[in-house]
Structure formats: C-alpha cells, structure tokens
C-alpha cells in the first residue's frame, strides 16, 4: 500500500510538472490565427491578457479552475495570449510558474500592427484587455470585453460545449 501511494504521488507530481510550460511560443497575428483555425473541432477559449494588467491577473485563477475542470475533455482547449512585450518574455515564464498556469500560453509579439489585427479578431474590441473570445467549429461564437467571473466563463462554455 505504501509503494502504491508513493507511485501515485510521483505520477501526480510528474503530471503537474508536465502541465506547466517551460517555454513560450512567440507568435505574430497570422501564426495565432492559424493556431486558432487548427482547433476547429474544439470549443476554444482564447484570452488576451498581460502580466501588468490587474483585471487580467485577477481573472486568471478562474480561468485555471475552469481549464482544470475541462482538462480531460477532448472537445475543449484554452489558450492564454500574452500581450506582454517580447523583452518581458522571462517575466511571462516566471508568471506562468508562480501562478500555476496550466493552459497553453503564447506571446503575441505584434504590437506595432495591433490596429490591424485587433479588428480582425473582433470589430467591437477597443484594444483594452482582458478580452476573451470563444470559438466553436472554427467560428467565433462569443466575445467578452473585460474581466470575467468564473460563473460567466462556465456559463458560456456550458452553452457552447455540446
């Protein structure tokens, strides 16, 4: 029994460590758009945030709870798109570790063209963050401008994950 418990603890620790990113992909808008289109068979939650944005940081624990809740569902995926500067990549990696972010995190290094790509994601997006977009079958089904509660997040996921 003691050996079984030890094996279970090692397995859970390994799973937890594996879930956390040790590197962050740096993408341009076109790369992120392709990444979103590759997930056509899923309900995809795409959250735009930054480590320096207080409302973003405040809502991330809710996103991690929900991401953990749906982790075993092959029809669900969450991507956290950091809008931090490329020179702050190490800060983003440290943030991932200290905040135990389990969703995939990418760094969108395309600030100079933001006035071009923001309206491509959502015509009503004024550029402020946090912003969350929900895609189902490759099509945007919901746009949330501002901080989200866990209840709001769960409601939109439940409505679209069928």
Please describe what this structure looks like:
The protein has 162 residues and is of the alpha/beta class. The protein contains six helices and six strands, in the order αβαβαβαβαββα. It has a single domain, classed as Glutaredoxin (3-Layer(aba) Sandwich), CATH 3.40.30. The N terminus is likely disordered. It comes from Chryseobacterium rhizosphaerae. Pfam families: AhpC-TSA. InterPro entries: AhpC/TSA, Thioredoxin-like_sf, Thioredoxin_CS, Thioredoxin_domain, Thioredoxin_ResA/DsbE_sf. This is TlpA family protein disulfide reductase.
What is the multimeric organization of the chains shown? single chain
CATH superfamily: Glutaredoxin
What percent of residues are in strands?
15-25%
Mean pLDDT: 89
Structural class: alpha/beta
CATH architecture: 3-Layer(aba) Sandwich
Topology:
Layout: H1 2-19, E1 25-27, H2 29-37, E2 43-49, H3 54-69, E3 76-82, H4 89-98, E4 104-108, H5 114-121, E5 131-136, E6 139-145, H6 150-160
Parallel strand pairs: 1-4, 2-3, 3-4
Antiparallel strand pairs: 2-5, 5-6
């Amino acid at each position: 029994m003691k050996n079984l418990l030890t094996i279970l603890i090692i397995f859970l620790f390994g799973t937890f460590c594996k879930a956390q990113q040790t590197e962050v992909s740096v993408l341009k808008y076109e790369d992120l758009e392709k990444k979103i289109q590759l997930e056509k068979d899923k309900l995809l939650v795409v959250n735009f945030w930054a480590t320096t944005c207080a409302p973003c940081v405040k809502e991330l624990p809710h996103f991690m709870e929900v991401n953990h809740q749906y982790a075993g569902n092959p029809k669900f995926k969450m991507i956290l798109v950091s809008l931090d500067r490329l020179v702050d990549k190490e800060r983003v990696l440290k943030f991932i570790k200290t905040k135990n972010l389990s969703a995939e995190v990418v760094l969108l290094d395309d600030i100079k063209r933001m006035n071009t790509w923001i309206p491509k994601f959502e015509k009503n997006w004024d550029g402020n963050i946090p912003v969350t977009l929900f895609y189902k079958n490759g099509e945007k089904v919901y746009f949330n401008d501002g901080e989200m509660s866990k209840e709001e997040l769960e409601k939109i996921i439940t409505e679209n994950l069928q």
